[in-house]
């Protein structure tokens, strides 16, 4: 990679930034492999560009995550209660259980075929309770799995899904690395994320996360229509990417780029309809299962509402209304931040805040939901110290939920008591709030924003980058976007 020794403030040429150049934690960590790279370190190995390195790293980390599930693969998933092996070894996954319980082993067609109670074991589950594109992902994996309903077939279903999800993980890293042209190495944090390794094969969330990251990449390249297509497909796989459209709307409103937002919105709606309309038309009850199940689902693991319910003894029958009210209040605050801040926030910052608001206010916060925030956190606050603090809180919660379930599902009650589990919930929510506080500070005081210290506006903002404010409620900061300044030295 070309070394950059001096760069004038405001110079918009796409010089690459290495984490060891501008991040003290990354520089200190590099001492384990010989210290920060110099300008000639890679001169003889041009094949080892950042993208190829990160692809190999994420494949390695994903493989380690699969190895972590080995004790469950060899039997823990298939032991009947009161065995707690899949929880005590923290290797639980929904995927092998869904193979039988949602009818893939019996060749039932998702959304069209009714799932017998003897399979699902739940009075609330009549059809597959996942969005349509995720259901298609699961069905394709079942086609690639050897036919049968035995333990070996369930194991192979998990292997096939893991292979497909590994492709999603690679795509995710590539998208994050290429979203900001000047900071390709930011994708390395996604590739090395311990939370990614631990949670990637719990469920199918990584599929939607990769699609959403692809949408942000295309937006950063000035392709709002195609960005909308991928965001719409992501919303057809998991509902949360709809919030990215809200973040885009606020930023486009302030920047006077509503025409581009309209193209994105129209493309997103169109892509979502293309995927969903056939199922709505021919299997309306199956299509609606995801939405009815989400509405009827009670307070569940990982949410602050569970702490309130357990501590108060109140079943919180109105948790849907409470959660919606909190989410609306947080969205009003985020909208005010977008329109009143001295400079227009970056897209990564807004996207991270709005998805974090959903997770904090939601009635369930599953451990794999950390994947929703992972690429957005890197785009919002690419600082290794802060990201590692947040990841540490998430890993602690990953262990906490399984040890809590081990306590509840074993006769000997080995694991976490309710009080200890509530503490684990609090730690992982505080980890998210910590990162949110830093992002809000960066928005209100742009001089602290690492991506703006070189005079940039929003390198991943596409048509928003460098745009003048057209609608602002506060007092905007009028900073010249192309002003020259004294050179700022970079470490070599």
From TrEMBL:
Extent of Basic and acidic residues compositional bias: 8-21
InterPro entries reported in the protein's UniProt record: GT87, UCP010361
Molecular function terms from GO: hexosyltransferase activity
GO cellular component, one term: plasma membrane
Transmembrane segments: 49-67, 156-177, 189-219, 225-253, 265-287, 322-340, 347-365, 388-408, 420-440
Membrane topology per record: Multi-pass membrane protein
Subcellular location: Cell membrane
One Pfam family named in its UniProt record: GT87
Keywords: Cell membrane, Membrane, Transferase, Transmembrane, Transmembrane helix
Region annotation Disordered: where it falls in the sequence: 1-21
The family this protein is said to belong to: Belongs to the glycosyltransferase 87 family.
Protein known as: Uncharacterized membrane protein
Organism: Actinacidiphila yanglinensis
């Amino acid at each position: 990679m070309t070394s950059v020794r001096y760069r004038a403030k405001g110079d918009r040429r796409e010089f690459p930034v290495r984490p060891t150049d501008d991040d003290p934690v990354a520089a200190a960590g590099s001492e384990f492999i010989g210290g920060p790279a110099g300008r000639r370190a890679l001169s003889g190995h041009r094949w080892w560009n950042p993208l190829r390195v990160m692809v190999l790293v994420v494949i390695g980390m994903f493989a380690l995550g699969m190895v972590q599930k080995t004790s469950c693969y060899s039997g823990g998933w298939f032991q009947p209660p009161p065995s707690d092996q899949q929880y005590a070894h923290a290797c639980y996954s929904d995927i092998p259980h869904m193979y039988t319980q949602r009818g893939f082993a019996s060749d039932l067609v998702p959304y069209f075929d009714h799932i017998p109670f003897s399979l699902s074991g739940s009075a609330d589950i009549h059809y597959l309770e996942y969005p349509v594109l995720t259901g298609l992902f699961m069905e394709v994996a079942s086609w690639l799995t050897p036919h049968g309903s035995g333990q070996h077939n369930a194991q192979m279903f998990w292997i096939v899904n893991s292979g497909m999800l590994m492709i999603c993980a690679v795509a995710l890293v590539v998208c994050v690395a290429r979203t900001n042209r000047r900071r390709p190495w930011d994708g390395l944090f996604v590739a090395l994320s311990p939370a990614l390794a631990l949670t990637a094969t719990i469920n199918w969330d990584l599929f939607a996360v990769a699609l959403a990251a692809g949408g942000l990449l295309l937006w950063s390249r000035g392709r709002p229509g195609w960005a909308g297509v991928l965001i719409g497909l992501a919303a057809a796989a998991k509902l949360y990417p709809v919030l990215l459209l809200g973040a885009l709307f606020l930023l486009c409103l302030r920047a006077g780029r509503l025409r581009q937002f309209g193209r994105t919105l129209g493309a997103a709606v169109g892509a979502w309809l293309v995927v969903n309309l056939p199922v709505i038309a021919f299997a309306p009850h199956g299509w609606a299962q995801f939405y009815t199940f989400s509405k009827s689902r009670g307070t569940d693991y990982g949410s602050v509402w569970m702490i309130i319910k357990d501590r108060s003894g109140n079943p919180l029958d109105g948790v849907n209304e409470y959660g919606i009210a909190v989410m609306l209040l947080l969205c009003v605050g985020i909208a005010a931040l977008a329109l009143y801040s001295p400079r227009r926030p970056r897209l990564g910052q807004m996207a991270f805040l709005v998805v974090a608001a959903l997770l904090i206010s939601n009635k369930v916060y599953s451990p794999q939901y950390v994947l929703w925030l992972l690429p957005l956190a890197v785009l919002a606050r690419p600082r290794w110290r802060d990201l590692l603090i947040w990841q540490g809180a998430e890993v602690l919660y990953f262990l906490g939920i399984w040890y809590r379930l081990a306590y509840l599902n074993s006769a000997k009650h080995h694991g976490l008591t309710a009080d200890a589990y509530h503490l684990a919930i609090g730690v992982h929510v505080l980890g998210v709030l910590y990162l949110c506080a830093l992002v809000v500070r960066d928005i209100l005081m742009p001089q602290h924003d690492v991506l703006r210290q070189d005079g940039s506006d929003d390198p991943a903002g596409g048509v928003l980058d460098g745009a003048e404010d057209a609608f602002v409620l506060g007092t905007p900061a009028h900073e010249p976007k192309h002003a020259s300044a004294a050179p700022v030295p970079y470490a070599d």
